[in-house]
Structures are given as C-alpha cells and as structure tokens.
Specification:
single chain; 301 residues; alpha/beta; D-Maltodextrin-Binding Protein, domain 2; 2 domains; five-stranded mixed β-sheet; three-stranded parallel β-sheet; 11 helices; 34% helix; globular
C-alpha cells in the first residue's frame, strides 16, 4: 500500500473526536466502525520459553501496563465507546504480550509524557508509534517493530498552494513532542535564512485537533506518519488530500525502561516469534499497513 521512505512520530490521526470535528467541518466522515481493521482481533498463542524470559517483577501481576497516546488512528485510538484502545499498534502489542504469557493493559496518556512515565515505572512499556532516534535511545530501550515515513496532508485541492520544499508563510499543524515538530521548524528556519516569511507552526496536544485544523481550513497543511495521513484522507471522504510523497523512513520502537534490558530482549524475541509464525503480518495486513513490516526487530537499532 505504501512505499517506505519517511518516518515519525507525529501528525494526522483521527480518533472518534477527530471524526466528529471533521464532520462538523462539512466533510461527512464515516463512523469509526467502518475503519480498516474492524472485526475480530487476531489471536496469538503463549510461548512458555518466551514467558520465562520476562523478569519476575514484570510478570508478577500477569499484565503489562502500557502507556499510549490514543489519538493516532490507525495506530492507536479509541473505539466508538470512547474508552477501548484499538489500532494496529494496540493489536500487535497485545499479541506480543500474549506470546509472553501476559495481558496488555492500555492506559491513555499524553504522548510527550510516555517515555518519562516508562522511566518512572508508571508504565512498563510505551506503545505509541515512537520513531526510534538518538534522543529516545538515550532515555530508554527502543525495540523496533515497524518502519514508516512522514507524510503531508492538505485540504482537498491544496487551495493554499502549499509546497513541501517551500511552505514559507503558510500555517502548518503538527502534534507536539513529535519528530515532525523538528522537521517543520527546520523548514521554517530555511525560509527565514533566505529572507522569506517564517512558517507558522501550530502544535496541538493530540493529532485529532491537528487534523481538524486542516479540515476546517484553519491551517494550510499538516505533517504526520504515512499510514496516519492516509487514514485521515480516507475518512475525510474527499475533504483532504495527500501532498507529494512520504520521506525519511525510520523504525517505530516499543519503549522499555533503560534498566530493563532483559524485558526489552523478551519483547524483541516475542516480536520475532510473531513474525515467524505469521501473526505479525496478518495483523498489519488486517489494518492495511502491511508494507511497513520489518523482518528483524532489534534493541536500539
């Protein structure tokens, strides 16, 4: 479905709230129940050898507490009940936990607070489309499991005439604390260094608000991970367009505390087992994001 050449994590998710916002803007979005991936979850089988690798302190309560910013469809977002986390990230890590003989308990959290929450012990894992980069590897163990790039999205027909390589003077939406913030800020500096108007960068706490800002015409464009951008465009029923192609491919990583190397190894090995038995690809294909699959998960790649 997509040609890998870009990466995140940031902008363009559509949760139920985002869908409502887009609908109010006149886009006629469909119900979340019609999203790709709707239907029964793909199940995985527990592996006793992998379960034995999980540190006792982690498996004592039979679950893995997971911090996730559930505003980033189709990776992680809330179902129509407003409380159940769904998405390909959610389903894939649920399968990882099952391989380890545990249950995954997802807790909605602000994206920018998840890594700190893992470090403090509030969460045992962070699952939220985190792009693996140097800053994050310095704070935590990052277990790679997927790869994708950054995509721009505009209102249908690109009425503001936004260009990726020259967005000077335009208003661009991003989700805060994401790699797309640095991306757009560098582009703005290029503008000002050339004597052109700066890009007005609007940072939103959740992707749903960033998407709504573009759908309503408040902002001229937004940046996000490719599958998230495609999902937003699809759900907008013609109100939004992809702009150009994605770029800067990078892996996503599960966040595990820096002092939990053994647990990170168990998560990596469980992901490898899901790849080997076909469950991994089945889940990604179910959500129509299969082309982002990797073959060799690693710790801090």
């Amino acid at each position: 479905m997509f040609n890998i050449s870009g990466g995140r994590r940031a902008v363009v998710g559509v949760t139920g709230a985002a869908l409502l916002a887009v609908s109010v803007a006149g886009c006629g979005a469909k119900e979340a129940t019609e999203q790709p991936g709707a239907g029964p979850s793909v199940t995985a089988a527990a592996d006793s050898a992998l379960a034995a690798k999980v540190p006792d302190a982690i498996k004592a309560d039979g679950k893995i507490v997971v911090g996730s910013d559930t505003s980033y469809a189709p990776a992680e977002f809330l179902d129509t009940d407003g409380k159940t986390a769904i998405g390909f990230d959610i389903e894939l890590f649920t399968a990882v936990a099952t391989k380890l003989g545990l249950k995954a308990e997802f807790v909605s959290a602000d994206f920018g607070a998840i890594i700190t929450g893992v470090s403090s012990g509030k969460y045992e894992v962070g699952v939220s489309s985190f792009t693996v980069n140097g800053d994050r590897k310095a704070q935590a163990n990052m277990v790679s499991y997927y790869q994708v790039g950054t995509q721009w999205v505009t209102k249908k027909g690109n009425p503001a005439g936004v260009s990726i390589d020259n967005a000077c003077g335009k208003k661009i939406a991003v989700q805060k604390d994401t790699v797309q913030v640095e991306d757009i800020e560098k582009r703005s500096k290029t503008c000002t260094d050339a004597g052109k108007p700066a890009i007005t960068v609007e940072q939103f706490p959740g992707q749903d608000a960033a998407t709504a800002a573009v759908a309503s015409g408040k902002d001229d464009a937004m940046l996000a991970d490719y599958p998230v951008g495609v999902y937003a465009v699809t759900k907008s029923e013609g109100a939004l367009d992809l702009l150009d192609k994605m770029y800067e491919a990078a892996p996503y990583g599960y966040v595990v505390a820096k002092d939990q190397t053994a647990f990170a190894e168990a998560v990596r090995d469980a992901t490898k087992a899901l790849i080997a038995d076909g469950t991994y690809q089945t889940i990604l294909d179910k959500w129509k994001v299969g082309d982002g699959a990797i073959t060799d998960p690693a710790i801090n790649p």
